[in-house]
Amino acid sequence: MLSWALVVVGALAAAPDFSASLHVRGEKGSPSVATLSSDGQRLLLDVEVVDITPAVSADPVHSDHVEVWFALEHLNDIGPTRFVMPVGGRHLLTVDGKDDADALDALIQGTAVDPATDSEGASEGCEPERKAASAELGKTPSRRVRAFFGLAHLGLFPDGRTPVLYDAEAYAAAGLAPALGAQDIRYEATKTERGYHLKAWLQPGALVFIPRGELQALRVRVDAVDAGGPGAKEVLRSTNPAPKWGEPSTFQVVKLAHPLTVKRVESLPELDAPGALPVGIRDAFEPLPRFFMRMGDAWRGVESQAVRPQNDSRRVCRVELSRVAQHLHSLWEFGQAEPVSDTDFTRVSVTDGSHPGTLLITRTGSGPRALWVANRGRATAFRFKDGAPGVVLEETAPTMGEYTSGQCGGTDETTLSLVRLEAAGPKRTPVLTWGSCSAYIMYGPNTLTQRPGDPDAPPEVSLTWASPNDRVRVSFGEGVAVDVRWKPDGTGIAAQVVPPPKKKR
Fold first, then answer.
1. Each residue of 275-292: pLDDT tens digit?
2. How confident is the model over 334-378, as pLDDT tens digits?
3. Cα distances (angstroms) measured from residue 458 to each of 114, 142, 227, 439
4. Most buried by CB count within 10 Å: which residue of 113, 140, 177, 450?
5. Which residues contact 138 (CB under 8 A, 6 or more apart)?
6. Residue 421 contacts residue 390 (beta carbons within 8 Å)
7. Are 354 and 123 in contact (CB under 8 A)?
């Protein structure tokens, strides 16, 4: 009786998504071959290696073995793999898109010109900011660095030893530390008359980096390393005619006939759904990472972005170095789904080290609805009286959009909004604003009243229901409060100062 595993293997081998011979440069054909298939849950990798000079040692590099490279489908998502880093620098850098250490050193020393951009066309008098932006890069001399994002480099061996994830130092250079899970790779190695044969069952974790949603395509390259024994020259046979170490452009794009489904974050099953996110949660999920990285038996959100070094110590002289790119890599962590008291909402905390926040989610019969709440925001979830989910949202941000110099450059402004979570997405209506650069509480463009306390300090604000689900009271202390009310469907929003209580005679 055939086992289920053998039935699956037979079905997958019949129609591989990827099949290529492994040969050295200039060789027209080779009996060594690799195939890759998917059943929608895992990948099957089959590699036949012809090698009549077996050389097996404990060294995972200088031993006969097969190296498998995986990468994200799109090269732009992976980004560069070669960077420069100056002495004392904190970031991986490129100059004009290259790992040009001499060009970076020239910019730091001021012997090369960077056509830096200035705000409002201000160029005169901004030289100190230009020099400061360059100085923040670090000191010379710069060194070249290899760093990986979006790549997996695996080692499988003819003696069947534990598989290896190579290049820990290249991930560490990007501030990442991926690791295979215990069940991510299972493989069998068999000796043959002409060499050896590997058959591997790969769970999605073996890819190390995956995009959000179902996995429809990826990049693949398979290399067979023939160590050749003592004194012999190592031979590399590859599915690419001109392989380069760590270069995803030498990997072949493979479309999977059966896209892989992956369970990433238990509290957010919508991240695993095929196709586009439902409209009702699309805006809320937009800030979340587009990629996930394997860390043992768990997935962590991970993101890569390139930004231009800046100096904005003076608002009129915001300077951006246009030739230099800083390549930043951030890890995201998702909390458990926690019920919100007295509502049918759940709350999931999200952190990425610099832009933490919270997802408020309610799953209705017509589909899920969600709202992203930034770290400095406060949200009160409820149901409008017509049944639609809603949130009273308090958000605080820099008055000028970012902290900078000048009047009100370092102050905050808070906005109170009424949010109705509709099937087409959140409908947000700003109602009240106040801040540490103003002594007034505003309703739209109109002044409602003067807020109490120090006008240069943010007030202590509390929210309570003056009438359940249709009138909230915003209290600013010292007897100052504003009632915000609305109709059962969220329309007809109005705000009114609450009269102070009458003094007893």
1. 888 899 999 999 899 999
2. 999 999 998 999 999 999 867 789 999 998 788 899 999 998 899
3. 41, 45, 68, 10
4. 140
5. 85, 86, 87, 88, 89, 90, 108
6. yes
7. no
CA–CA separation, 18 vs 46, rounded Å?
Answer: 10
Q: What is the number of other CB atoms lying within 10 angstroms of the CB of residue 308?
A: 15
How far is residue 90's CA from residue 138's CA, in Å, rounded to a whole number? 8
Model confidence over 164-219: pLDDT tens digits?
999 999 999 999 999 999 999 999 999 999 999 999 999 999 999 999 999 999 99
Q: Compute the distance between CA of residue 273 and CA of residue 388 in angstroms, rounded to an integer.
A: 24
414's tokens: 């808070």
Q: Cα angle at 206 between 9 and 66, to 5 degrees?
A: 75
Strand 346-351 relative to strand 324-334: parallel, antiparallel, unpaired?
antiparallel
DSSP string, 146-175: E--SSEEEEEE-TT----EE--HHHHHHTT
Produce one character per residue of 441-478: b if its CB has 16 or more CB atoms within 10 Å, e if not: bbbeeeebbebeeeeeebbebeeeeeeeebebbbbbee
Token pair in block for residue 497? 């100062």
Q: Which long-range contacts (CB under 8 A, 24 or more apart) does 57-64 make?
A: 57/227, 60/155, 60/157, 60/164, 60/166, 61/166, 62/227, 62/234, 63/157, 63/225, 63/227, 64/157, 64/158, 64/196, 64/225, 64/226, 64/227
Tokens 């209506």, residue located: 429
Is residue 86 reached through a cis peptide bond, with omega within 30 degrees of 0 on the bond before it? no
Q: Are strands 319-320 and 117-118 parallel, antiparallel or unpaired?
A: antiparallel
Share of the chain above pLDDT 70, in %: 94
Residue 310, C-beta contacts closer than 8 angstroms, at least 6 positions apart: 133, 318, 319, 320, 321
- Report angle CA 403, 406, 409 to the nearest 5 degrees: 25
What is the pLDDT of the chain when averaged over all its residues?
89
- Report whether 429 contacts 417 (CB < 8 A): yes
Q: Give CA–CA dist 50/26, Å, rounded.
A: 17
CA distance 177 to 149: 11
Q: Quick one: which of 261, 269, 265, 208 has its CA closest to 39?
A: 261
Do 41 and 259 form a contact (C-beta atoms < 8 A)? no
Per-residue pLDDT of 412-456, as tens digits, reads 899 999 999 999 999 999 999 998 888 899 999 999 999 887 777
Which amino acid is present at 390? G
- Tokens 């660095």 locate to 145
Mark out the alpha helices in 299-345 (DSSP H runs).
none
